[in-house]
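Example record used in the benchmark description.
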Amino acid sequence: MTEEQPQTRTPETAETAGPGQTPPGEIAEGAGGAEDTDGAEGTEDTGDTGDKPVKQRKNGLYGGLSDELAENMKSGWADTERHDLEPVPQAGFAADRRAALSARFPGERLVVPAGNLKVRANDTEYPFRPSSDYAYLTGDRTEDGVLVLEPVTTGDGKLGHEATAYLLPRSDRTNGEFWLSGQGELWVGRRNSLTENEKLLGLPVKDVRKLTEHLAEATGPVRLLRGYDAAVDKALVDKVTAERDEEFRVFLSEMRLVKDEFEIAEMEYACESTARGFEDVVKVLDRAEATSERYIEGTFFLRARVEGNDVGYSSICAAGPHATTLHWVRNDGAVRSGDLLLLDAGVETRNLYTADVTRTLPIDGTFTPLQRRIYDAVYDAQEAGIAAVRPGAAYRDFHDAAQRVLAARLIEWGLLQVEDVDKVLELGLQRRWTLHGTGHMLGIDVHDCAAARTEEYVGGTLRTGMCLTVEPGLYFQSDDLTVPEEYRGIGVRIEDDILVTEDGRRNLSDQLPRQADEVEAWMARLRP
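Model output (structure tokens):
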């Protein structure tokens, strides 16, 4: 996926309610394909704080709830508490990350929400994904969670923090919430108990439904990751400042610049799974030709859901002239023999780390001479960019190296009237056809560490453990009258995920071929 857009995208303020509130769209009788079950007035909903009735759904088929049924549903259920749980593999790494965060902000209360469910339409929600910072610091992936680091003084007089994850408990079987609420466990699945979550996450866990009251009474300095939980934002509105919270957000982003052992393993797996997804696509290109780009999107998505959590971003399945649109995610166009397919996609692991890989493939398995000329130029640019990745190098070096190669080729092809490469780069004239920067940081976000200070990111120095994409491209728009007609509608991008190592670099996505001859041979082996 090409580099982040120039403007900074801030998280949407959650439309749904936070801890202790009933989310819009929550219904007593459930959501989705099942028939509605109507709760009686006065029935409590433990998705709240226990003092509000489970709401009835308008036009539900059951008009009420008999006392006899309510009583019947309270009992006869087995104890399903799990007692033999071990901490998740990420737990120790998350503890180390929390310790680093604690050391940076001694004596201050730190609040990091996961976020809430968001309504897709009426009473259905989007699949939930927690805020990346919350997942990074806890290993938890459930909605409505909030991590709070409370300032404490240790036994030796040093300032530290006590971390607590505030989470939803099990649905209450005694008041009917488990089957009457749209977010009850018989509708959306069993939640972990608070005790179970303590064992899994390796830190204290408390009931999130009481958190906003606790935060409202808090004293002393507070820093909040804003924009993910409206109820938490409201509870702290008079205790935080925009400047301090922005400093907090920036530090959280910069913490992820260097990946730890757990994160590197996740990135390796994401790339391996992504490579399998690309192979899946090549095997069904004939079916895509009979349908559309959506067949390609669906094929890759199947791999992502089976082996991971999801795709890490909307897959770009751009065939023919659509390849000249950087983020073509409509994926509704024709797939034609003789054209190129630009496939930019990544599997997101179940711990939310994503690959970000692009290959440009000849749909019929063979590049035309012009397609190959353009492809080879992009390949050479990527080779130059990857070679510039090493510890101690300026971050910008890989971008500058790749752009220099592309500028030289554009001059060689007679597309630029200025024949001095340095002058072309100074004026940015190559950007008419290269368009975007040559890469970005990668990790738990596809555009990872986006809030980091410029001097630590684009203006910084590469360090061992950083992971970034190298993804040059050339894009000749269908309506570009400054290039020969045969160039128009051709777009090529090649992208790989590069880990900075002590002695240079490692291409995490090298399971997929890049050189033109190798691409053709690989496709020939896979196609029926």
